[in-house]
Structure formats: structure tokens, C-alpha cells
Design brief:
Elements: E1 2-4, H1 15-28, E2 36-42, E3 47-52, H2 64-78, E4 85-90, E5 94-99, E6 109-114
Antiparallel strand pairs: 1-3, 2-3, 2-4, 4-5, 5-6
């Protein structure tokens, strides 16, 4: 787990700008989304805990910039303020964004971003079903 101070460590930023700054800091440290387990936020975003996975996600996991841009865009569209942001979990099938609940208990709201399709990972190819025309032989023909 690493701790980071992002965005001036005393001012409240817009969520989109804040997440971009986090992405920049992690890129400088050569940390990718594949390596992340979660980003946890406290003190209105002034304290950020970075949890790293023991085993990285697969090679098709979306880039961190794509994930954080999508999360930031949704937060902006939904009017989410930085102090509401509690946690971003980088799961194998989705990125889960948890917004604050009273006293840090259960999240008040959760946004889910599926990895396939939504965040840019390719959807598995559907194998086309091949129809084979068969002629049934009648007995006595």
C-alpha cells in the first residue's frame, strides 16, 4: 500500500481533474491499472491509499487513463463531489466506484463499469453457429 497526496494537499479539486492527476502520478511511478487493487480516499481526497495486487490483471485490462477518464466523466455528469469519493476497486470483471456513506460504513452509492465493452477491453468473439442442412431419408426410398 502506498499513500499519496494529490492536488495541492489543501484544496478541493473537481473529481475529473483529481482523477487525471492521480493517473499522472501513477504513470510517473510506472503503475498500471493491471497492478491496482484499489484506490481509497479519505480527508476529502487529500489522503489517497493505493493498494497494489499480488498478481496483475490480464493483458487485456484497460489502461488506467481510460478507466479514470470514464469514472471522472460519470462523476461529473452525476454531480459527484470529491469528498463523496470513497473507493475505486479494480476487479477482474468491473471497476467499482463507491461513494461515501454515513460514518464510512456501507457505500451510499456504487457505480459499476464493466471491463468488457464499456472500458475498452474487447468483447469475446462470438463463434457463429453454423447451420447444416440435413436431409432426412425416408424409409422405403
Amino acid at each position: 500500500m502506498m499513500l499519496a497526496c494529490v492536488g495541492g494537499c489543501g484544496t478541493i479539486m473537481d473529481v475529473t481533474a483529481f482523477l487525471k492527476k492521480i493517473g499522472d502520478v501513477l504513470s510517473e511511478r510506472r503503475t498500471s491499472a493491471r497492478e491496482l487493487e484499489a484506490l481509497e480516499f479519505a480527508a476529502d481526497g487529500r489522503d489517497v491509499s493505493i493498494r497494489v495486487r499480488g498478481k496483475p490483471h490480464g493483458s487485456l485490462y484497460p489502461p488506467l487513463g481510460v478507466i479514470l477518464a470514464s469514472v471522472g466523466r460519470t462523476c461529473h455528469e452525476q454531480g459527484v463531489a470529491l469528498p463523496q469519493l470513497n473507493r475505486i476497486a479494480f476487479l477482474s470483471d468491473e471497476v467499482r466506484v463507491e461513494l461515501g456513506g454515513a460514518g464510512g460504513q456501507q457505500p451510499a452509492k456504487v457505480y459499476r463499469f464493466p471491463i468488457e465493452g464499456v472500458l475498452g477491453a474487447p468483447r469475446p468473439e462470438q463463434t457463429p453457429l453454423q447451420l447444416v442442412a440435413a436431409r432426412l431419408a425416408r424409409s422405403g426410398d
